Amino acid sequence: MTSVSVPPRKRLYIRTFGCQMNVYDSGRMADVLAPLGYGPVETPEEADMVILNTCHIREKAAEKVFSDLGRLRVMKEAKAEQGQQMVLAVAGCVAQAEGKEIVTRAPWVDIVLGPQTYHRLPEMVARAARAAGAQIDTDFPVETKFDLLPAPQASQGPIAFLTIQEGCDKFCSFCVVPYTRGAEFSRPVAAIMAEAKALVAGGAREIALLGQNVNAWHGEAPDGSTWGLTRLLYALAELENLPRIRYTTSHPRDMDAGLIRAHGEIPQLMPFLHLPVQSGSDRVLEAMNRGHKADMFIRICDELREARPDMALSSDFIVGHPGEKPEDHAATMTLVERVGFALAYSFKYSQRPGTPAAGQPFQVAEAIKDERLQELQALLRIQQDAFNESCVGQECEVLFTGPGRHPGQVMGRTPWLQPVHALGPASLIGGTARVRVAVRFPNSLSATLLDQKELACA
Ligand code: 5AD
Ligand code: SF4
């Protein structure tokens, strides 16, 4: 009789910091470790292996990792006293940027691996179990991890992420991404379409295409031609059972006319776009090496709204970039007033080692950054509230993703990504249904279902 050896069950805890790309990568790390017997657990205390998938975009994000590592050291030592092991890995952009520094600061870390080497994780785990001393791999290997990672295992649920592009060649003055994620890389069409079909088969009804510069994506098609993002969106729109498509994060420089037009022509393309502008001042935009002016951004927003009148926009802002003067900040406020955002993320400029802006003179004082951030966030909050308020009383379609916090409730997302809860049966989860928005809260909505009878038998 032949016996199939089943690896012993081991427990894996992954903590993800930062962007959606990291959320996607964490899923792929879980996939790559599954054949070794690792299954997910809810807390680090229970885990045999803990991975911190890190973000380096701002100083605070990196510091959080080191404070987590301090807490994990205590857990690891307590386990060792009971004769148990806890493999500790630091992955992602802090790992890429800091490399050996992590092990110098936290010698209890076993594995350090950059975002491009996740496919080598099983080998590193095996080596970490055998050898003393940390395993470090922050290469930008010639083989791509996408070819070597197994097909995604776990169903991501009704809303799924699909990385189509990674890295960045734009070198904004303030940003670490070109250094931590490397040069722009686009996955080929066939791999993306295969993954999209698998996600839909696994229950995805919304796919968000991910990339640091997602609209710079240009992939090789099976016939040898090169497609841009617009062509890919039309192809995805042909898939059955995929009522929603999004893409994030886009750069204003790569918002071409065809892509803007697609927003009017592809109903599955959701009427919500995250388009970082960073500043409303041409002088600062130039210092940031953004390659676009304030006017160009405003024109893109206008054209998007012309193509799709219910379009809502979100953006990223940085206040206090080196050299930013009061009049530059005023220009940012003017741009915000002019465009009107449904959602926005705003940050104080943070000096990132190795980036051009970090070494520039005229760094803005912390107190001034605080003041500017408060002023900007107050305006953005007013706009976000006004947008959510404008939804009250309106009908819209919600994709239900899971149970709500209270019994009998279901949770989902509107086309504009607002979290929404409604009273309704669990059978709604995994599909879309029409609702009327009843109340707005600071960061979510409540709604009542329409056509309940029809839905109950659907
Ligand atoms: N300081 C502050 N914010 C930053 N971001 C990127 N780098 C920095 C930095 N050094 C912000 C940008 C970007 C978002 C993901 O993070 O607004 O769009
Ligand atoms: Fe960073 Fe600029 Fe590239 Fe965006 S476009 S990832 S902000 S360098």
Automatic annotation (TrEMBL):
Domain of life: Bacteria
SUPFAM superfamilies (alphabetical): Radical SAM enzymes
Keyword hit for Hydrolase: no
Record has Flavoprotein as a keyword: no
Biological role stated in the UniProt entry: Catalyzes the methylthiolation of N6-(dimethylallyl)adenosine (i(6)A), leading to the formation of 2-methylthio-N6-(dimethylallyl)adenosine (ms(2)i(6)A) at position 37 in tRNAs that read codons beginning with uridine.
Subunit annotation: Monomer.
Protein name: tRNA-2-methylthio-N(6)-dimethylallyladenosine synthase
Species of origin: Teichococcus aerophilus
